[in-house]
Design brief:
Length: about 130
């Protein structure tokens, strides 16, 4: 299972073909959104950091078996669950749990590809935000 993977390649090898295709598409979108992101494994899944700060993490280990992207600001900034999100989301893609933590959820690869432009836009704008206010 991908849980024991220590590399992105090991994580990918443990996925079934459909899920792997979704993950590969997401990886391409994150790189397109910001070419300087650094990919690694954190929290048992691919995660992307920018300037040493964790910013986006993949979630595939959930009871719904969905592929999700978690937008966050690592531990550098305190969350406020009552404050509005720090990022406008005109497409309504992000389910916000706090001002700096949100989920983008994808049912399958066609769902992800249909929203590709909006997803890359959200990621680009998310990664442009400063971690420290």
């Amino acid at each position: 299972m991908a849980r024991s993977s220590v590399t992105v390649e090991g994580f990918l090898e443990a996925l079934d073909p459909d899920r792997r295709a979704q993950v590969e598409a997401i990886r391409a979108m994150v790189r397109e959104a910001h070419p300087d992101v650094v990919e690694g494994i954190k929290w048992n899944a691919p995660s992307w950091a920018l300037h040493g700060e964790d910013r986006v993490t993949l979630n595939t280990m959930n009871t719904e078996r969905l592929v999700r992207l978690v937008l966050h600001m690592g531990t550098a900034r305190a969350e406020d669950r009552k404050a509005p999100p720090v990022l406008a989301d005109p497409a309504g893609l992000v389910a916000w749990s706090s001002d700096i933590r949100g989920l983008l959820t994808f049912a399958d690869l066609p769902d992800l590809e249909a929203r590709r432009e909006a997803v890359v836009d959200v990621l680009r704008r998310w990664l442009a935000l400063p971690v420290r206010p």
